[in-house]
């Protein structure tokens, strides 16, 4: 449904070449000799999205465990367990998204009393407004001796404001987090510092290829517009230069777990009946409601392609670069229809 059917052959060929390169390399990491006695830095991340990034940088000299590692779990409503607190308490390096997204991790760290280095992805992302979002997040008071409050009782209480906290969908931000991880790991295990730096640089190479691929997709579809149920993929769309036509009040309400006003829902549904309609709908596959089902049905009825993107790694996926590459492939395929 793209409005640019006559795409330059060079752009199409470029996209194919980028897809091949990304599939071949993934996040990558250099080989390192290991044995049962090889020391490994224990890294604990809030979600497996950041676990994949940490694993790419830490490689053979790190052991990564993620509090959330299932695509069936919505991080917004996650209820931490005593085992989670014990796991966090044993970490030598902690990684969280920040920006209010994974508040359960802040509570777990406080409850565990662990003073290990903490990498806050929002804080190091370099995105405009990120420092303020990080400051707000860390400004919350936490009693280090308290039991983490079940997320089901505090679900969606934080204010997202205008900052989009889904920074793992921003290739440039992931590159900066990889650099920070390499620095922290190098301090913990100086003997493997060069190994960590090399792995981070390899990941940054994958980031650069993803950014180029996103740019090519945008160039192949000038004027393309999409709708999203939540702002999860917004940074990836920005990297591609593809407009998000979603009413902000709609996606914010869905993200907060509330019902958008009827007038806003009507505005959203109108995106699929307008002439021309939006080129694709991107659904958050981990959050569904009667409202998002209604939007999906309207898109399908209007012949608008539906793409699903998740907040955590899809089943069977362990590599961040390959995950984002697959998301771009799905987006490209939808825009080509």
TrEMBL record:
This is Zinc/manganese transport system substrate-binding protein. Residues 1-24 form the signal peptide. GO terms for biological process: metal ion transport. GO terms for molecular function: metal ion binding. GO terms for cellular component: cell envelope. Gene3D superfamilies: Nitrogenase molybdenum iron protein domain. It is found in: Cell envelope. Residues 135-144 have a biased composition (Basic and acidic residues). PROSITE patterns: PROKAR_LIPOPROTEIN (PS51257). Its main location: other. Residues 132-161 are annotated as: Disordered. Keywords: Metal-binding, Signal, Transport.
